[in-house]
Specification:
Layout: H1 2-21, E1 27-33, E2 36-41, H2 53-72, H3 79-101, H4 105-129, H5 136-154, H6 156-168
Antiparallel strand pairs: 1-2
Helix pairs in contact: 2-3, 2-4, 3-4, 3-5, 3-6, 4-5
């Protein structure tokens, strides 16, 4: 039981590090002392964000595809688990891919097709492993990363386009697109 607690604590701390020390995070660590954090909001958190209807449409399309794939699978999930899965999808695939190719409209159709492949393969993997999985959202996030990286190895031109877009904007290239 103690080992499980230690593992859970380690996983939580890694997640917290990703959230707090991420480049686009709206929360910054003001001070850290023995696992306790003093946090502050960045200036970006207080700025009004403009709506991007194309991104909203892209995200809705991906969520509809994901929901359809999950409904047709044998995976049993709660509403909260679905939200976790959708959030993982948004963070790992939708947002990074959209902003990398938003300027290149010709690449958008390729991105949509590749994203549908990634989601399909990831849901099939989730379905295959569903008996062994305790936390669907976390497993789906891990699966998304692996399949995104694997599929983009085959789609070299798209991977190069995404990576160069990140480099041009002086952003850190996510691991799955390197």
């Amino acid at each position: 039981m103690f080992k499980k607690f230690q593992q859970s604590k380690k996983v939580f701390n890694k997640w917290l590090q990703r959230v707090l020390y991420g480049q686009n995070s709206l929360i910054q660590v003001k001070q850290e002392l023995d696992g306790l954090y003093e946090l502050k909001f960045t200036e970006e958190a207080f700025r009004e964000r403009k709506q991007d209807p194309e991104f909203d449409q892209f995200k809705a399309s991906a969520h509809n595809t994901l929901s359809s794939l999950l409904r047709s699978s044998s995976v049993r999930y709660t509403k909260d688990e679905l939200q976790d899965i959708q959030f993982a999808c948004k963070q790992e695939v939708i947002t990074p891919m959209y902003y990398a190719v938003e300027a290149n409209k010709k690449a958008m159709s390729t991105v949509k097709a590749v994203m549908a492949d990634i989601l399909s393969v990831s849901v099939r993997e989730l379905e295959r492993q569903t008996g062994n999985v305790k936390v669907l959202g976390a497993f789906f996030r891990k699966t998304l990363r692996l399949h995104t990286k694997r599929i983009l190895q085959e789609e070299q031109p798209l991977r190069y386009l995404i990576a160069s877009s990140y480099k041009d904007a002086n952003w850190e290239v996510p691991e799955q697109f390197q």
